[in-house]
Write a structure and sequence with these properties.
Number of helices: 8
Helix content: 25-40%
Strand order of the largest sheet: 6-7-8-4-9-10
Length: 263
C-alpha cells in the first residue's frame, strides 16, 4: 500500500481502522455460498464474537481527505466500493473504527433514495431535497433550475409510478446536483442515461465536482477516474490494496488483472 494519507484535524473525510460486516444467516455450506453470491460481496467470510457467520465488507480501512481532493475507488465487483461510499454517507455504521465527516454530503449512489412513486415529480423534488438537507425556501428558489434540467415538462405533475427508469434518473440527478456540497459521493450509475442526457449530466457533474470540497467516485471507468480524480484507492476483498496517485493505482490494478490466468 502506498501514499496513505494520515489522519488530520483539518480533514473533510476521515476513516480510522473501519470495519463493517454483515451477518449471514442459515450459514450451511451451500446456502452460505448462495447468499454471499446473491449479495454480491467478495469480502472475507468469518465469524463474530457470537460465532455468527459474517461477511467482512470492509476491513481495517483508514484514510483521510483534505479539501480539494478527488478520490476514485476501484476494484472488482464486491470489493467494497459501494459499502465504503455508504459508510462515508453514514448509512452503514462500523462495528469497529470511526468515520468522521465535516460538511453537507450529497450522495449520488442510490437513485431511489427519497422517491415516493405515488407522489408527483414536483412533490418528489421537494421531498428528496429535504432529505438532502435543503430548507423549504431554498428548495423553492432552486426549483425552476431543477425543473429546466430534468426536461420532464408536464410529467412533473404526474405520479412518479408513471415514469420510466430514465425519467427517474433525470429527476434524482437534478436534485442531487442542485446545491454545493462539502462532500460529493458518486457511483457510476450516473453514466447509465441516454446520450443527450449524459452530455448534459457530464457537464453538470464537472461543474459540481469543481465546486465540491471533496469527491469520492466508485467506478470501473478508468478514463473517467483519471480525468476527474487525483488519487485512487484499490479495494480488494474489503481491504485497501493500494492508495496513491490515480494513474499509479489504475496501472497497478490493470497489471494485476492482466496477470490473472484466463483459463
Amino acid at each position: 500500500m502506498t501514499g496513505m494519507t494520515t489522519q488530520s484535524d483539518s480533514a473533510i473525510v476521515s476513516l480510522d481502522r473501519v470495519v463493517i460486516s454483515f451477518p449471514v444467516y442459515q450459514g450451511g455450506s451451500r446456502s452460505l455460498k448462495k447468499r454471499v453470491l446473491f449479495h454480491g460481496s467478495a469480502g472475507k467470510i468469518g465469524r463474530d464474537a457470537n460465532d455468527q457467520v459474517v461477511v467482512e465488507a470492509l476491513r481495517d480501512v483508514s484514510f483521510s481527505l483534505q479539501a480539494g481532493e478527488r478520490l476514485a475507488l476501484i476494484g472488482a465487483n464486491g470489493a467494497g466500493k459501494t459499502t465504503l461510499l455508504r459508510a462515508i454517507a453514514g448509512i452503514y455504521e462500523p462495528i469497529q473504527g470511526r468515520v468522521v465527516t465535516r460538511g453537507r454530503i450529497s450522495p449520488m449512489f442510490d437513485i431511489n433514495l427519497g422517491i415516493d412513486t405515488d407522489l408527483s415529480g414536483f412533490d418528489n423534488i421537494r421531498l428528496r431535497a429535504l432529505l438532502l438537507g435543503l430548507m423549504p425556501a431554498e428548495i423553492e428558489r432552486r426549483l425552476p433550475e431543477i425543473v429546466e434540467f430534468t426536461e420532464l415538462g408536464d410529467y412533473l405533475d404526474m405520479p412518479v409510478r408513471t415514469y420510466s427508469a430514465g425519467m427517474i434518473l433525470r429527476l434524482s440527478f437534478a436534485v442531487a446536483t442542485c446545491f454545493d456540497p462539502e462532500i460529493l459521493l458518486m457511483d457510476e450509475w450516473i453514466l447509465a442515461g441516454d446520450a443527450h442526457f449524459m452530455g448534459k449530466a457530464e457537464a453538470r457533474v464537472q461543474r459540481f465536482v469543481e465546486r465540491a470540497s471533496v469527491m469520492v467516485l466508485a467506478s470501473h471507468n478508468f478514463e473517467l477516474c483519471g480525468r476527474w480524480c487525483s488519487s485512487g484507492i484499490w479495494l480488494d476483498q474489503g481491504s485497501i490494496r493500494e492508495f496513491g496517485p490515480i494513474d499509479h493505482v489504475i496501472r497497478s490494478y490493470q497489471d494485476f488483472v492482466s496477470a490473472i490466468p484466463t483459463s
